[in-house]
Amino acid sequence: MLILRSFPNIVDVPANQAFRRYFYSRWGKESAIISARSSKVEYPAYTQRLSIKAAWSGRERYFIDGRTVAVDDDSYLVVNDLRTYGSWLTSEAPMHSFSIFFAPGAAEEALAALETSGERWLDAGGEPMSRPVEFAESLRPHDRRVSPLLRYIASQVDAGVDDALWYEEQISFLLERMLRAQRDAADFARTLETTRSATRREILRRIGWSTDYMQTYYARPLTIVDLAKAASLSRFHFIRLFRAVHGVTPFAYLQRKRAAAARRLLASTDLHRDEIAQRVGFGSRSTMIRQLRRLSPDPTITWGQSP
Fold it and tell me: Largest Cα–Cα distance of the chain, in whole Å?
């Protein structure tokens, strides 16, 4: 188990050769965890193992298949095995980037364990029984299944825990939760108004593209044309399918995202509310306050106070 509490410095310079040899002797061959804080990091495209990514107190961007996907406090991202992508983060203050890279075959073994009876495992004598695993590569809102364990593992890394066996156990539990979440998504897809499973998967994939676009570019003055284009759908079909998948309209989803970002800035910075409104895409302080009142109907919160 490779545990890194700072970003790996793999620049090819003579002073770093020993670390490079150590790093590449293990990277991609075993599970690895990176829990690091920084205000600026950039990695070029590289082929990686299956991984799950989170970011707190900032945003980290991943560049996958021509798309930019930003991970922040509201969501996590799963990237499939042997995918090539780059990443970049920049922040006014150090932010927390967290990633778990799974050992080759770990997800397949976890899936086989979920799908196979104890008798069959005994008959197999420990030999792997697996089929390929592929996760949906779109941002997933933090949930009650995957996210708590993700945060717990991050807290133990940051506390200095180095017990490889303990981490292997937690990673097994995490993979099981990830697979169950993926299965729930597949079950939900079957409720969509289409009979073909391939069509249902494609609908979720395209709506996921647009959702990622909103999560990444929410501070921009986005239009339905922008969002439908991100999903490669007509405006009419996009609005209908988005509501079928998320239960709310694209506009309502976008306002929720902006409100979540605004609440974090209000709680963690001394920025003027006019500036916060601009930073999160509301455009004006009055619009921001109106949306916060609507989405957070807590009488103890006085959104209209200065500054």
Answer: 69
Closest CA to 177 of 148, 211, 212: 148
Which residues neighbour 73 within 8 Å (Cβ) at sequence distance 6 or greater?
A: 55, 56, 57, 142, 260, 264
Tell me the whole-structure pTM to 2 decimals.
0.89
| Residue 191: C-alpha distances to residues 120, 197, 240, 245, 250 (Å) | 32, 11, 14, 9, 20
CATH code reported for the domain at 2-187: 2.60.120.280
Whole-angstrom distance between the N-terminal and C-terminal Cα of the chain?
48
Peptide bond into 132 cis (omega under 30): no
How far from chain centre, in Å, is Cα 131?
24
Q: pLDDT by residue (tens digit) across 14-40? A: 767 888 888 999 999 999 999 999 999
Stated length of the chain: 307
Packing angle of the helix pair 285-295, 250-268 (nearest 10 deg): 100
Q: Which tokens in the block code for residue 159? A: 């506390």
| Nearest-angstrom CA–CA distance, 162 and 232 | 46
- For residue 130, pLDDT beyond 70: no
Rg (CA), the chain: 21
- The pLDDT value given to residue 9: 80
